[in-house]
Amino acid sequence: MVYGGCVPAHRPARIGFLLSQLGAHAAARFDDGVSSLGLTPQQAGVLRILGRSPGVSQRDLAERLGIVQSRMVALIDGLESLGLVARSRSATDRRSYRLELTDAGRDRLADVRRIAERTEAGLTAALTAKQRDDLYGSLRMLATSLGLDEDVHIGFRADG
Amino acid sequence: MVYGGCVPAHRPARIGFLLSQLGAHAAARFDDGVSSLGLTPQQAGVLRILGRSPGVSQRDLAERLGIVQSRMVALIDGLESLGLVARSRSATDRRSYRLELTDAGRDRLADVRRIAERTEAGLTAALTAKQRDDLYGSLRMLATSLGLDEDVHIGFRADG
DNA sequence: TATTGTTATACTCTATAACTATA
DNA sequence: TATAGTTATAGAGTATAACAATA
Predict the structure, then answer these.
(1) Is the Cβ pair A148, B21 closer than 8 Å?
(2) How far apart are the first and last CA of chain A?
């Protein structure tokens, strides 16, 4: 028995519930933050991926974000009309676009990262630095063991 | 400096993202489970609360679950037609209902708890018992520090 | 006058499938 | 024939606000 004595061997299942509850809360706080930039969490996710992988197509992007191709159209339309993303035709396959951040898009991505760090700080304010690192390690191990991709994130939305 | 050396002092914000990602995954797995019982996660949530607090009104229930009163009507209608929940008029205030589990409802609640434990086991299979307990402690501390209620759970839904 | 439960309506978000242009 | 992008439409889920019965 590894249990330290303060936790019953048949403790009710709570980690799943807490993860779901905290995850919804974290997503809502991030939504609050990017809303102040005039962005949705989905738009922020597109900026993040384009920052790391310039030149991807709408189809690639849709697959990485776990959404349908047809939804990507309006998503990129919006970012393009904000001047944050630019479409150009691929030289090798004229059916597909090369998507890239504009200079303004790179600036906005930096804003998004600041928002993410501020959200993170607000979430974990009650933890010590060691607790934060341990938690990060456990969550990473969980995500890896469950085969969750670094980008794909079906649930990153507001939910109130 | 408390950092152990393996984590940079300016590590990017990831705990919020991981919480949101894992939370969505946990909710989706729980949804899979209760779907096999013919229930939605919301219906399962109602059963859970009624198991602990028999006799509450629809309004109380709506507030605890963080949803609107008007949505509760169809939710209870469904559970009533499944024979899992019973409405009776309150003796002291004939505007409101007393909501209670039926015998079948109690049986189904036991099924839901089994599903929750199975989901939990699947989620945390990669962790040692000590890691599980530490993680549980950290998540509890987070939820408490953020003022998250034990019942209210705006994000417990499918998301695919 | 305020509150519980109810209903009707409208709105948001999303997937599906049909369409075009290129390959 | 298959694929990238596009469009139109329909469906699910939701909140909003007006209503009846009771306090």
Answers:
(1) yes
(2) 42
pTM: 0.88
Any domain includes A10: no
User: Does the beta-carbon distance from B154 to A140 stay under 8 Å?
Assistant: no
CA A96 to CA B159: how far, in whole Å? 29
Q: Is the pLDDT of residue B102 over 60?
A: yes
Question: The domain containing residue A126 runs over which residues?
Answer: 17-159
For residue B40, give the CATH number of its domain: 1.10.10.10
Residue A111: phi, psi to the nearest 5?
-60, -45
Residues of B in contact with A24 (CB under 8 A): 20, 23, 153-156
> What confidence category does residue A11 fall into, taking pLDDT thresholds of 50, 70 and 90?
low
**Burial (CB count <10 Å: 0-12, 13-18, 19+), residue B79:** buried
Mind giving me the DSSP string for B52-97? HSTT--HHHHHHHHT--HHHHHHHHHHHHHTTSEEEEE-SS-TTSE
Concatenating the DSSP letter of every residue in A48-65 gives HHHHHSTT--HHHHHHHH
User: How many domains does chain A contain in total?
Assistant: 1
